[in-house]
Amino acid sequence: MTYHEPIFFDIETTGLNPMAQHFWSSADYAAQVTAVGIGRMKGWREGQPYEDVEYEVECYIDNSEYSLLQQAQSVMEAKVEYVRESGGTPYLVGFNSRNYDHPYLGARFARLRLDGSVFNHDTQRLDMMRALGKHWDGVGRYPSEDDCLEELGIASNDPYDGSDMPDAFSNGNFEAIITHVKADVEEMMKLFVAKREECVQEYYDHYDIEADATFTETWTEGE
Question: Is 89 exposed, middle or buried (0-12, 13-18, 19+ CB in 10 A)?
Fold first, then answer.
């Protein structure tokens, strides 16, 4: 029986509308993906607290959205294939990714005529916001990530939030973007570990997976 391996991701953009143009009077910036964070973790299946799990986050950033999306597709394809070659089924995990990250990426890949299949349709998915909203009584139906972290007492060392990122990109402050993306993805992984039963339950329910699927674990490429 296969095992199922989460791969976490998050994007930063210049706004909420993936089709915004420079000439729109209501748009501060034209639509663009500015950074993509990808995370893996080790030791989460043994039931230990999130503090004892090992996290690895990579942030990809480029002034050229075309180059960035090409790189993100290539890197994620490699990680997905690594899990599959190890006998596992990878799935992409985000927070509010069903409403935002996946549609935004789909629109931008299409706009630039690039292959975004690994994000768009080639890999199974889990939206943690929906999982926690459905299965955790500690939060509302559509919780924010900050609300979930606060409820669990998971501290954030991130000095930025998403609203800072468009100006940071416009000003060339890549360091701020990388700091924010890495913190955001790591906090997401900690939240997943802390509420692993609710998250995995939603994933299993959605894809009709038997609950006794094995819990063998892989780590990042080249370990």
Answer: middle
User: Angle at CA 122, nearest 5°, toward 67 and 78?
Assistant: 55
12 close to 180: Cβ distance less than 8 angstroms: yes
Residues β-bridged to residue 92:
7, 125
Contact assessment for residue 34 and residue 169, using Cβ atoms and an 8 Å cutoff: yes
pLDDT tens digit sequence for 111-155: 999 999 999 999 999 999 999 999 999 899 999 999 999 999 999
- Separation of alpha carbons 129 and 141, rounded Å: 8
| Residue 117 in tokens | 């299949």
Question: What residues contact residue 51 under an 8 Å CB cut-off, 6+ apart?
Answer: none
Q: Which strands sit side by side in the sheet containing 3-13, from one edge to the other?
A: 54-61, 33-42, 3-13, 88-94, 124-127
Contacts of 149 (CB under 8 A, 6+ apart): 155, 156, 187, 190, 191
DSSP code for 74: H
**Mean pLDDT throughout 8-35?**
92
Render pLDDT for 63-82 as a digit per residue (tens, 0 to 9). Answer: 999 999 999 999 999 999 99
Task: Give the pLDDT score at 22.
Answer: 84
Question: CA neighbours within 13 Å on the CB side: how many for 133?
Answer: 13
